[in-house]
Amino acid sequence: MKISREQLRDNFIVKVEEISGEKISACYQCGKCSAGCPMAKEMEILPHQIIRYLHLGAKDKALNARTIWLCASCHSCSSRCPQSFDLSNMMEALRLITLRAGNLKLRPEEISAEFLKKAPQQAFISAFRKYSN
Ligand code: SF4
Ligand code: SF4
Fold first, then answer.
1. Are residues 93 and 129 in the same domain?
2. 79 lines ligand 1 (CB under 6 A)
3. Could you report the per-residue pLDDT of 37-82, keeping only the tens digit for each?
4. Which of 20, 34, 65, 115 lies in the 20 to 30 Å Cα band around 84?
């Protein structure tokens, strides 16, 4: 499918680019990022496909994909990318947009006391960093 100039100037893309510092149009869909992603086997939508959704203006599909939450911010993708596109920055931007819209993924009051006793502190800190704003 051909991508129009208007699609790439869409407000949502501009917002993702502002937050992430990455140029969405720089990606030419070679797929090297997804081929080296250690979390790819857990993802129904691969990392480069999330970028494609953005190219095509399908922001809801990108925002609703579990992929953005499964990304471990390991930077394997950016080290393989011929365009030096840092996907982990883009994933972070998509998570932030979701969280800022009030769609919190983790609410302290919903965590059971029993679970709190068992879970390591580091897990909490990293979970709150990622899943709350
Ligand atoms: S490796 Fe880079 S250019 Fe290739 S699909 Fe991934 S982000 Fe796009
Ligand atoms: S930063 Fe995210 S998308 Fe990139 S390789 Fe790591 S887990 Fe995959």
1. no
2. no
3. 999 999 999 999 999 999 999 999 999 999 999 999 999 999 999 9
4. 65
If one counts the domains in the chain, the total is: 2
48 lines ligand 1 (CB under 6 A): yes
Quote the ligand 1 centre to 23 CA distance (angstroms).
11
Give the pLDDT mean for 73-100. Answer: 95
If you ran DSSP here, which 8-state letter would residue 56 be given? Answer: T
Question: Rg of the chain's alpha carbons, rounded to an integer?
Answer: 16
DSSP 57-87: T-HHHHHH-THHHH-----HHHHH-TT---H
* Ligand 2 center from residue 82 Cα (angstroms): 15
- 63 in the same domain as 86: yes
Q: Please report, for the domain that includes residue 63, its CATH number.
A: 1.10.1060
Q: Say if CB 103 and CB 81 are below 8 A apart.
A: no
Q: Are 56 and 76 in the same domain?
A: yes
Query: Which domain range does residue 128 map to?
Result: 107-133
Answer whether 22 contacts ligand 1 (Cβ < 6 A). no
**Six token digits for residue 122:** 């580091």
